[in-house]
Amino acid sequence: MISVQGKGVSTGVACGPLYFYQRAKTTLRRYTVEDTASEWQRFKDAQQKCIEQLGELAEKAREEAGDDAAMLFETHQLMAEDLDYEDAIQALILEEANNAEAAVTDTAAQFADMFASMDDSYMQARAADVKDVSDRILNILYGVVQGGIDSDVPVILAADDLAPSETIQLDKTKILAFVTEGGSSSSHTAILARTMGIPAIVGVGDQMKAEFEGRTAIVDGQTGQVFVDPDEDTTTHLMEKRRKLLEYQKMLEELKGKENVTLDGQQIRVYCNIGSPEDVHAVLSNDAGGVGLFRSEFLYLNCDDYPTEDYQFEAYKQVLSEMGNKEVIIRTLDIGADKQIGYFELPKEENPALGNRALRICLNRPEIFRTQLRALFRASAYGHLGIMFPMVTSVWEVREAKKMCNQVKEELKAEGIPYDEHVQIGIMVETPAAAVMSDRLAKEVDFFSCGTNDLTQYTLACDRQNNDLGRFFNPHHPAVLRLLKMVCDNAHKNGIWVGICGELGADLELTETFLSIGIDELSVSPRSVLPVRKKVRETTVSDVKDSILEDLLGEGNQF
């Protein structure tokens, strides 16, 4: 038996075969082929498989988001079988004896440059299409598996780390647990695992060896341990632990339909964080009161080009419709920093977490923002929508964003398109600047939602993605909690509510603190809804409030 130690970031016990994530190769193999006819057939086989994959994606997109969403993949199908594109590749293989990978790479570059140099904006956009289609064919030629998992049975997925664009494409039905070399408790792999309700361990470093592939392992997401080829005693112990965890979950089921109210009558809303329309089932099955954070950027990460207004509208409409009368708060585009999207062509930054990201991108590129806002307000006619802006630091940013909202509403009204006149507008409080300015920002919006992952990062000057910082990244730091108390006080003075949508919301050690400082809503992963409800219902705030505030604020309760 081999024992590997990391950091548990999503609890639970899972047992199954280890599988190492298959990522696309980035080094081009270039060589002269002798049998050019066979090489040409190799390309044709890959081309046909590409066309079939795109057809399957088109059908899936049509089912989930309508005809406009499917059109992107159908366009890519046409590009894959374009005769000029195919002829250029054929010449490089049959006449110049290039291998298929080199022929596809060179043709893609030639066609992309040709499209990009055209005056027509529509044709310029085709440069991205030809690159995406070519990358798909190259992945097939290299033997790279779509979605990163080539297994007939569910697996424990091991990887160095996973980018947001990779996690969104995973076949989640095949994943029992995650184990990554790097990452942190706020990495996207960890967030995805908590949303899915499966164990996850990060920060194992180089302890996971390639020769472990296919061997049986048990993952304990609570202790952060992975056991490869576990012995009988370890297996018995952890399977018993798994049984008890499932019993505990069954006990929590009895809390469904109950209120989130303390023993002395204080209520709090418990909502869910999600990343896609497919997550709504988990929200409803865990009896959450609503969606406190829909990370809309995952719609962008799942596309090869800017998602259209109709594509976004269908996704937002689906979530709102399925949630019925329950509130759904959608965060506007939040990319940059650790969430990079190639087709945005953002320049490389020395310090991306402090750079052009989130609302800054939207205000600098209003055509992208306007498209999203139109989709959001159109969808508002189908449910109870709230919109919030991320990465706010100043009043003027909020006013400019609200101005764009008003312009979009006027456009929709003029076009006779229905929307809800009473959509709540809020902001993420995730910078110290927003917390300090919360007295003024509260006069501009209907609610605050505190993103504690970034608020901790910026307050403590501590990179949330750097697992080596360990104890220095402390979300329980009094500076973070004092800022949250300040935000609550300023919000309530101005008649607006405050939520927490960061991972800290599910920290049961802080539930009493959040109730004591006046948090109105906690938005957590679906699996955390019932444990939070249990903790709330066991708490008497009047018994703990004075001591908590004294510890937090010090003598005289002064900052």
Describe what this molecule looks like in 3D.
Helix content is 47%, strand content 14%. By secondary structure, it is an alpha/beta fold. The protein folds into three domains: 2-23 and 148-251, Glucose Oxidase, domain 1, CATH 3.50.30; 36-142, Orthogonal Bundle (Enzyme I, Chain A, domain 2), CATH 1.10.274; 256-557, Phosphoenolpyruvate-binding domains (TIM Barrel, Alpha-Beta Barrel). It has an eight-stranded mixed sheet with strand order 1-8-7-3-4-5-6-2. An eight-stranded parallel barrel has the order 9-10-11-12-13-14-15-16, surrounded by five helices. Strand 7 and strand 8 (225-228) form a beta hairpin.
Oligomer state equals single chain
CATH 4th-level superfamily of the largest domain: Phosphoenolpyruvate-binding domains
* Principal-axis shape: globular
- Report the portion of residues in β strands: 5-15%
Unreliable stretches (pLDDT < 50, length at least 5) are: none
Number of domains: 3
Radius of gyration: 25 Å
Distance between the termini: 53 Å
Helical residues, percent: 40-55%
How many distinct beta strands?
A: 16
- CATH architectural designation of the largest domain: Alpha-Beta Barrel
CATH class identity of the largest domain = Alpha Beta
Q: Structural class, please?
A: alpha/beta
